[in-house]
């Protein structure tokens, strides 16, 4: 039990997907302007990440490995599964909760090309996680991603009325802030022996 | 001449990294040394050119509704080929780039160009577009790699360039350095460009 | 959408997928021999690095973690084993050489790590690795006591010491039960 908790903390903080592992940078730079939007994107991504982690585990252990095709079919298999999952989530969300779909609708297609999802899926066979560990890993990754997004959105909301030099407005200043945030997260290193 | 125009735009005006802000993940992750940035750029270049050509060749055969999954399969296939090739013939590079080789699959540049250009143009133009975008991506990554390696280790392509009295600023080869270097570079480029680019895009 | 349209979609997708699978299987066949060779070379060079008298090796057991070093005349000159554990940023994997009779380590090679360049990554430097060249396996393996540490990289240094401390007893047991002579 405690290992699962440590795995969660390790994935969300110590090896934060965005600020340490460099996964999910595109949405991090593009969707982090308002806190509510960031929360929405983070939530949707966490959901897809958890499902993808579980799906990746099944695909790897029940299809790729038994047939010995992992080394050369893994990438194709994983990305197709992720793309399909996102489609599925969109369809289900539309039927089950149209209002939620409206709120998150724009983000969902973007999630497919979020390298954090594919990165997450690829880590699972590398680290040889069990099904439970994969699930926690997916949740942790999503929470870490959401944290990074929300913190960035909070800061960007604050500096909205600051006098940022024209050349740095938008992506420039965001990257500089991300650099400082990344330094902060570097402080978590060694917190947990991974 | 149209062909030349399609090629040249990817090098600067519509540079994937500095102007379109696409493919950020590998840009930040593997530019801790010049050789890594160069290798990732070339691998991406290979996948981009091959996929754009194939997509353009078969564009009339693919029904519109399944085009994205088809493009994804094609891209993932070339990425796997690149990965296997590197693992066999350049194993040290493959080890360093690691996870980021398969992540070329979700590099927005590739799917973006396939969708926005290759699927709507002749093979010749698609190839030119891909060549330009690919080279543009490569030089951007190599430049970032050079800067981070010089400041962070005092070397360029493992050749010592800073004097012995220079204490490397290790932060530059760590994650924060990636963000800071790109941010400053972007600011500098925007200062000297007519068009300012502020939005990270990923279609 | 009519049946023809749907059918066409599925067929096209299936064809693309099958072609992709075929191309990849072929590419894999073509590159596999070379990839196996690369892995073999890496393993051999690590084993020979930690067992200076060895010119070849044979595996003990079959999980790829324990090896006998052999010299030109096929005499056993020590064992080499893979040791790994958590470091500062990720897993540290090392190849360690040991002379069982004299109960000493003969060398250490770092196979992979994700430690901080310039700090924890210095575990790859000769002076750090060299301290394991004739080290008794009965030492306590505590950084800054019997193991020299790296300034500013306490966790990486501790990690190496701990990995060794934890792995050596297991390896001895495995060697003695599995194929020890």
How would you explain this protein's 3D organization?
The complex is a heterotrimer of chains A (194), B (203) and C (181). Chain A is an all-alpha fold. Chain A has 9 helices and no strands. Chain B is mainly α. In chain B, helix 3 (34-57) packs antiparallel against helix 7 (123-153). Chain C has one domain. In chain C, 43% of the residues lie in helices and 21% in strands. Chain C has 3 helices and 5 strands; from the N terminus they run H-E-E-E-E-E-H-H. The radius of gyration of chain C is 23 Å and the shape is elongated.
Describe the structure concisely for a colleague:
Chain B has 203 residues and is mostly helical.
In helices, the fraction of residues of chain C equals 40-55%
Q: Using only CA atoms, what is the Rg of chain C?
A: 23 Å
The rounded distance between the terminal residues' Cα atoms of chain A is: 15 Å
Q: How much is the average pLDDT of chain C?
A: 87
Number of domains of chain A: 1
**Fraction of residues in β-strands of chain A:** under 5%
Shape of chain A: globular
Helix segment count of chain C?
A: 3
Report the biggest beta sheet of chain C as strand number plus sense, adding barrel if it closes. 5 strands, antiparallel
User: Would you report the number of β strands of chain C?
Assistant: 5
Shape of chain C: elongated
Specify the biggest β-sheet of chain A.
Answer: none
Major sheet strand order of chain C: 1-2-3-4-5
Distance between the termini of chain C: 74 Å
Number of strands of chain A: 0
User: Which parts of chain C are unreliable, with pLDDT below 50 for 5 consecutive residues or more?
Assistant: none
Supply the helix-strand structural class of chain A: mainly alpha
Return Rg of chain A in Å: 17 Å
What is the multimeric organization of the chains shown? heterotrimer
């Amino acid at each position: 039990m405690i290992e699962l908790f440590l795995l969660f903390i390790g994935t969300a903080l110590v090896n934060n997907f965005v600020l340490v592992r460099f996964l999910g940078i595109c949405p991090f730079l593009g969707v982090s302007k308002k806190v509510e939007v960031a929360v929405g994107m983070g939530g949707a991504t966490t959901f897809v990440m958890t499902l993808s982690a579980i799906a990746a585990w099944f695909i790897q252990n029940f299809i790729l490995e038994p047939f010995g095709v992992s080394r050369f079919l893994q990438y194709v298999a994983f990305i197709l599964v992720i793309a399909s999952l996102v489609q599925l989530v969109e369809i289900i969300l539309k039927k089950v909760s149209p209002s939620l779909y409206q709120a998150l609708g724009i983000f969902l297609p973007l999630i497919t090309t979020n390298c954090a999802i594919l990165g997450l899926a690829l880590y699972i066979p590398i680290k040889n996680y069990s099904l439970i560990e994969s699930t926690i890993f997916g949740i942790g990754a999503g929470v870490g991603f959401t944290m990074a997004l929300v913190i960035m959105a909070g800061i960007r909301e604050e500096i909205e009325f600051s006098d940022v030099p024209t050349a740095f407005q938008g992506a420039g200043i965001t990257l500089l802030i991300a650099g400082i945030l990344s330094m902060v997260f570097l402080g978590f290193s060694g917190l947990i022996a991974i | 001449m149209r062909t030349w125009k399609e090629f040249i735009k990817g090098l600067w005006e519509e540079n994937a990294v500095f102007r379109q802000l696409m493919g950020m993940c590998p840009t930040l992750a593997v530019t801790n040394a010049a050789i890594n940035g160069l290798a990732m750029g070339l691998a991406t270049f290979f996948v981009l050119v091959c996929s754009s050509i194939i997509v353009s060749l078969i564009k009339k055969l693919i029904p519109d509704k399944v085009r994205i999954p088809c493009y994804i399969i094609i891209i993932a296939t070339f990425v796997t080929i690149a990965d296997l090739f590197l693992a066999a013939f350049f194993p040290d590079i493959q080890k360093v780039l690691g996870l980021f080789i398969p992540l070329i699959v979700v590099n927005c540049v590739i799917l973006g160009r396939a969708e926005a250009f290759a699927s709507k143009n002749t093979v010749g133009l698609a190839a030119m577009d891909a060549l330009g975008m690919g080279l543009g991506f490569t030089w951007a990554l190599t430049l970032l790699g050079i800067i981070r390696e010089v400041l962070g280790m005092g070397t360029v392509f493992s050749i010592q360039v800073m004097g012995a009295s220079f204490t490397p600023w290790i932060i530059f080869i760590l994650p924060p350095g990636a963000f800071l270097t790109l941010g400053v570079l972007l600011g500098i480029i925007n200062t000297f460009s007519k068009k300012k680019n502020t939005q990270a895009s990923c279609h | 959408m009519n049946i023809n349209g749907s059918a066409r979609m599925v067929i096209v997708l299936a064809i693309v997928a099958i072609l992709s699978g075929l191309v990849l299987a072929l590419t894999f066949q073509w590159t596999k021999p070379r990839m196996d060779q690369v892995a073999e070379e890496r393993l051999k060079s690590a084993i020979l690095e930690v067992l200076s008298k060895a010119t070849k090796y044979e595996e003990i057991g079959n999980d790829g973690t324990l090896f006998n070093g052999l010299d030109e005349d096929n005499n056993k000159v020590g064992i080499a084993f893979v040791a790994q554990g958590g470091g500062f940023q990720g897993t540290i994997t090392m190849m360690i050489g040991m002379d069982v009779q004299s109960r000493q380590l003969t060398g250490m090679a770092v196979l992979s790590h994700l430690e901080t360049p310039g700090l924890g990554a210095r575990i790859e430097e000769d002076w750090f690795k060299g301290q394991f060249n004739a080290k008794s396996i009965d030492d306590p393996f505590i950084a800054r006591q019997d193991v020299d540490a790296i300034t500013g990289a306490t966790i990486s240094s501790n990690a190496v010491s701990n990995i060794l401390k934890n792995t050596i007893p297991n390896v001895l047991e495995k060697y003695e039960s599995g194929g020890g002579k």
